[in-house]
Amino acid sequence: MVAAQPKRSPLHATHEALGARFMEFAGWLMPLQYTGVIEEHLAVRMAAGLFDVSHMGRLEIRGRDALALIQKVTCNDAARLRDHQVQYSALTTERGTFVDDLTVYRFREDHFLLCVNAANREKDARWIREHREGEEAEVYDISDHLAQLALQGPAASEILQPLTDVQLDHIRFYWFEHGEVAGVSCLISRTGYTGEDGFELYVPVASVEWVWNRLLDAGQAAGLKPCGLAARNTLRLEARMLLYGHDMDETTTVWEADLGWIVKLEKGDFIGRDALRRQKEEGVQRKLIGFEVHDRTPARTGYPVLIRGRIVGEVTSGSYAPFLRKNIGLTYLPIEHTTVGTRFQIRVREREVEAEVVPTPFYKRPR
Amino acid sequence: MATYPEDCLYTREHEWIRVEDDTGVIGITDYAQEALGDIVYVELPSVGDHFSQGEPFGNVESVKAVSELYMPVSGEILEINEDLAESPQLVNEDPYGDGWMVKIALSDPTELETLMSASEYEAYVREEKEK
What we know:
The complex is a heterodimer. Chain A is α+β, with helices and mostly antiparallel strands.
């Protein structure tokens, strides 16, 4: 089999000129880092960072029954959304496990945008189409027409405001507006994957380089830095935001991933509802927890997790946390071992290091 | 641009050694630290430990990855760089200076002949990059 060439962002040449180092992620060649992961991570916590997240999948759902279709395939209650509101949700299987996690954007009752994981874009579109039974709604993959930028950090608003007429302080967290940024018509969404305040901009591909450069210029004085996927990963982990394919997938249920807050059993029927209701009544056998390592060695993704000498799983996400300056991670533990303060071990090469269940998110931004 | 000091000898695993009389100071090269990215922990052996040429003597952990450290030549650990415990980023900032890792007593100085000179190592890195 000949390996497919990874896809490139419309900003690829711009990243090269900025000296980015690239990595392959979900079939895309994306910036791993520019100057260094720690510097970029701290810029987002203290000032702001600009990420190219064009690899994300963008699916549009249009038609009279768009809401009904979304209600059927997701576990959160999309009927609670008002126009221009965003919701974190999941596409669930009959078993209550994850087809994907996603954000649902409502334009109108007959028009939604789903932002999904890069690796799952085709799978999700197929899944939604397959589960359409008479609903009058179409699924359009518009990923290739739009680029996506994330401007994240406490200075995001002050950097973006001079470039747009949209009153940013009127956009609440998890809401969005249409508007021009540097003269380019964009969707401005107050969302992100870093644990900070900030915006995601959906920009026409042809204009994204212009918008990217205007943002970098506008943010220079405030300390804005271009940031790669390495910092995106450590930032989301500190904020305990899950990564599909690592922290959850088609083998883990939404309850097990400790995302019960996005399960709305009372909203009406949806795929996976019976399984999730049953598991709620019976209780879960295991749960995703956050841990801190009592050692200088990072406990990395895939390292075996032990309780009293027995392997019970592996680290699903683990890293040095640049802002907290600790080694943290996520793993599934048997439910009787998930109380905060519980000690367990992680095998790091030939050693076993001590870890402890801690409250999450590890990092919460000051408000 | 990576640098290659003339007073060091180099391994294929990107360690350097600077020899004075029968002792050698060991670290990782500029190329290695740049490839690893931000270093957050360096696991070093204890003073008095013995290692053979090519044997792993520690680990260097960056945010992204972990990498083993290999002995350029056989010897006994005389000293470790204690500053790296609190400031592992010294390896990024000054890989051939303050970012040194261990000082050893060489048990067989003839092993030095198997290592690369600065110009040989530079050519080797160029090849690695083209792969």
